[in-house]
Write a structure and sequence with these properties.
Order of helices and strands: HHHHEEHHHHHH
Distance between the termini: 37 Å
Strand content: under 5%
Largest sheet: 2 strands, antiparallel
Number of helices: 10
Strand order of the largest sheet: 1-2
Shape: globular
Length: about 250
């Protein structure tokens, strides 16, 4: 597998546009049938397969003549994953559910955007074994990073203090590892990644997890070119921000 890092390198060949692969290929129906059978004994198989597809797709989308920058790959995946933590609840709010019914607290910031807090999105972000941050930190730990629970608490507290302010999306990264705003990554790329998730019929409440598996693959691919602690920080900072705010 190719290596991804700050020094740009060639990306592996990705899949063609998932939307072009749908039911036109009988083999895909067979894959879905196989997934339904397999997930009875292995509940995470659909998310892991979708994560592998999303990793390849993300590499394809970010590939250029200079290759794929590891920091950008992680930021894009983490930002879309963070948004996937609140997307199911935004959908329910749009059809009449109240924040109280969903266990959410909604705050309108001075910037005019709406911010969301509560246990339901936090479970998808960090408070379960296959949440976005749990998967990312597990991968980082396996690669030698000394990640801690305190890192997560500190980051979430920092984000809460910045709600509605001009520095809400400011990432605390060294200049050589800096990347674009998390909401911009999510706004631009969530549609393409959603196509892949739709193709493999990943339920809305499991989509953040699927992208978390893609993040694991990205961290493993870039293990020799980006410090795993820095990789974990990028994922933590990007996902925590997009899991709290609307993109518009």
């Amino acid at each position: 597998m190719a290596i991804f890092g700050r020094k740009k390198v060639a990306a592996p060949a990705g899949p063609s546009n998932p939307s072009n692969n749908n039911d036109k290929h009988p083999g895909h129906a067979a894959v879905l049938h196989h997934l339904r059978a397999e997930e009875q004994a292995d509940p995470g198989v659909r998310e892991r397969l979708a994560g592998a597809v999303i990793f390849d797709l993300a590499c394809q989308l970010l590939n250029s003549e200079r290759g794929v920058r590891m920091e950008d790959l992680l930021a894009m995946l983490a930002s879309v994953a963070g948004h996937a933590c609140i997307a199911p609840f935004l959908t329910r709010l749009a059809v009449g559910a109240t924040p109280e019914q969903l266990g959410l607290t909604v705050v309108k910031g001075n910037d005019g955007r709406y911010y969301f807090f509560g246990d339901p999105p936090n479970r998808l972000l960090v408070e379960s074994s296959d949440s976005v941050i749990s998967l990312a930190f597990g991968a980082a730990q396996a690669l030698g990073a000394r990640v801690t629970v305190e890192m997560i608490g500190d980051e979430m507290a920092k984000v809460a203090k910045r709600v509605g302010g001009p520095d809400f999306e400011t990432l605390d990264l060294p200049p050589e590892h800096m990347t674009d705003r998390p909401t911009e990554w999510a706004r631009v790329f969530r549609g393409k990644l959603t196509e892949a998730l739709d193709l493999y019929e990943v339920p809305p409440m499991r989509r953040a997890c699927a992208i978390g598996y893609a993040i694991q693959k990205a961290m493993d691919a870039g293990r020799d070119s980006l410090d795993p602690m820095m990789a974990a920080q990028i994922v933590l900072q990007c996902a925590t921000r997009t899991a709290k705010v609307t993109l518009a």
